[in-house]
Amino acid sequence: MKKLLPVLFLIVLLSCGEKGDAEKAESKNILEDLTYSVDTVVVDSGDELLVLGSNYLGYWSLSSDLSKMYLFTEKGNSLQEIDLDHLKVINRYPFEVEGPDGTGTRVMGIHELNNHQFVFSTYNGTYIFDKSGKKNIDYRLKSSGVEGIDLDDDYTLNHQAKIYGKGENLYVIRETPLESQLLSVDLKEMKADTFSIAKLSKTREFSTMLLLPGNMRFYSQSIKIQYLRDQVLVFSPVTNTIYLFDPRKRQIMEKSFVHRLVPLEKKWEDYPNEANSLEEFNAIMTAVEVQIDYGRFYWDDTRELYFRLSQKGKGIASPEQKRNYETFIHAYNVNWELVGESKLENLEERIYDYFLKNGKLYSYVNVEDELGFAVFSFDF
Amino acid sequence: MKKLLYFTVLAGFFACSEKDAASDSITSIDFSYSLDTVMIDSGDEFIYLNWSLISSGLSQDGRRLYNFDQAKTAIQFIDLENLVLEKTLPLEVEGPNGIGARLMYGIYAANEGNIVLSDNYYVSVVDEEGNKSFGFRFNNYDYDGEKFPNGMNITWGEAVAKDGKTIFWLYGSEKMDRSPSGVAIFNLETKTVSIKPIEIFQELDPYRVYFSINGQPSGIGYADIHLQVKNDSLLFSNSVTNKVYFYHLSTDSITTKTYESKFTAQVAAGNYPDRTDSEQEYVDVIKAMEKEVNYGPLFFDDQNDIYWRFAKEMDRMKGDTIVFKTVLTAFDSDFNQLHEELLPSDFTLPSTYFARKGMIYTFLNIDDELAFVRLKPVISR
Fold first, then answer.
1. Does residue A190 register a pLDDT over 70?
2. What angle is formed at CA B369 by the lines to CA B365 and CA B374, rounded to 5 degrees?
3. Structural contact between residues A207 and A273, judged by C-beta atoms closer than 8 angstroms
4. Shortest Cα distance, chain B CAs vs residue A55, angstroms
């Protein structure tokens, strides 16, 4: 059923740009002379059977020291623990689906807390499990039970709900008719603070669906939350603008960057949120896919830089054709100033699941149904 | 849907009397039909056709078709006696008279000129002047009765009772990766809900394909369930089998009738993967599904006292396009099959059709004007 993703990341050495000696006068682009090489590594699954999607890894996260990867698999409802230093599967933690220790059927994210328990972000609630599969805390917060917020619809606060670090706060995105907001709920006091993330509000426009008899299609973009170096980052694929939330100071900061290599945002040209035909649905999807798409952030402790990738689809002649992508890498210093950007030449695949470790970019590849990574080493 | 499907014969006459009467199981009838095409005069306005009349409903007296204009959030009243657009009734989204959303999937005629609107989440009842008498929001009801099992919720598929006071919703896994698990009955008057698990939908699991990109649901291919209310029964049929199910509400029991066709497959093959994260594979599966037999809903013709049903199946490929054969089947009011008619090869079955005054109206878009190809059956028993 599945075709192996062509591992085009064979060992290649590419160089982009001339290594000139000319001094860069003003704002220096530290990635201007970026070169990279790619190596492929495969994780030893040992006796454990890794269950992989063919194109995407699904839900996964890394331990805070980047030594472990936790990969959730729906089959068996379990977490697979991968030792990234030795590239070996070392554990498998199964969880119940139903009952008091159940995860439910709609797991939408997993994270490890400082105390090595796991947070399961699910459609129904946010749960904290220990490794034995016991559910220690079940957060199904409703605005009526939290001081400081009052929502018309008393939904469970679960839209991108995340708990990080010491597990003190729950972060969740809230959409009001006016704008998008970040809620930070103090889980001890059950009090919430609301922060405007208005520049990300337009993300919700990027949504369309198609309902045909026998065929429903959905396409949407969403605001995302991540945790990096004790900060909560809120970002969206549709814009370069991000929000940095400092949980200790309870302050949020908006940051925009002057990218020169890529457009600053995607545009939604008032496409219908309900396509009238498959042709129209595909056309809308394509119109968004060929625009810039901003990814997550990573911290490179070897260089003391933040990195983020952005990707942009190329046009295709017919819907049957495979779409190629251009990939860009952007670097920011510790003060969140853009210090460099470059195109990753000769990379045409869209990459979805990747992270930075020891200054190298690891990107998931399915190597004959084994977990593999294309490892990019950068030189600049 | 939007694409113009030209029906080449605008007015034709086809007749055939039944030659092989023995092949129809219990009863036999003489059957012939004629076709004509009528245009609706919309004056200076445009009738909303982008959804191919999918959100439309016939008034109880059969005189009007209510068509929901998704662009303007309005109901267009189409007078089928005089073939004109009679009026457009704009509706509010917010406020005390608001219907809760801009788009509406279902529009149903209820007693006393009431119109029930649903987007599968907000339900409201308005009269022909647009005054709202009832509103219901799915996430916020405090009805008495049974709760959905964990991880389950209403899903696609609903029916409204004639009095407009009971709504039947299919329910199932929230993820929609499996066939529905049963039907939830919401009584809007007594504010009660009951949940009825129905196992027969499981037979549709082989036709379900769940497509996700990076964990995000991106497509669902599935067999359509046709759900309708008939007195104290619910009628279920589906697009992939030649059967009708009757769910008897009072006794909580199910009976079935199985039919045979001499023109189409009894059942769609449905040999598909149950999930994929490859768009190409998903598109291929949907294409393969399209070629298979597809049984439409039964619809009642009160003048002839007959339930009609269209079915289509790939006849052949012409280049990249599927050429379908279309079959019209007649059932008596006890759901016995009376007759099967293979329609001419240039008959294109649209997504919307209904019976009115002894004729079958099938939707046709002619240069963005509303037309109906009318099939007028002549039946002698």
1. yes
2. 55
3. yes
4. 6
Q: Scanning every residue of chain A, which has its alpha carbon at the shortest distance from the alpha carbon of B149? A: A98
Give the 3-state secondary structure of residue B312: strand
Contact A51, A12 (CB under 8 A): no
Q: Which residues of A are less than 8 Å from B273 in CB distance? A: 1
**B78 bridge partner residues:** B65, B85
Model pLDDT for residues B132-150, shown as the tens digit of each residue: 999 888 766 778 888 888 7
Q: How far apart are CA A119 and CA A111, in angstroms?
A: 5
% of chain A beyond a pLDDT of 70: 91
Q: 């699910």: which residue's tokens? A: A122
Nearest to A376 by CA among A298, A315, A313, A314: A298
Strands B30-39 and B369-380, bridge-based pairing: antiparallel
CA distance B313 to B297: 15
* Bridge partner list, A327: A311
Angstrom distance (rounded) from CA A303 to CA A351: 23
Q: Whole-angstrom Cα distance, residue A121 to residue A220?
A: 19
Q: What is the ipTM of this complex?
A: 0.79
Question: Is residue A15 pLDDT above 90, yes or no?
Answer: no
Q: Give the tens place of pLDDT for each residue, A222-232.
A: 999 999 999 99
- Each residue of A314-338: pLDDT tens digit? 988 777 788 899 999 999 999 999 9
Write the CB contacts of A363 (distance below 8 Å, at least 6 apart in sequence).
A9, A351, A353, A354, A373, A374, A375, A376
What residues pair up with A170 in beta bridges, in sequence order?
A: A163, A185
CA distance A380 to chain B (A): 31
Beta bridge partners of B267: B241
Name the strand (E) or helix (H) holding B283.
helix B279-291
Closest CA to B339 of B33, B24, B22: B24
pLDDT digits (tens, 9 = 90+) for A103-142: 988 899 999 999 999 999 998 899 999 999 999 999 998 8
Chain A residues close to B277, C-beta within 8 Å: 53-56
Structure tokens at A124: 């129904």
Bridge partners of B258, per DSSP, are B243
Q: Does A320 touch chain B (CB under 8 A)?
A: yes
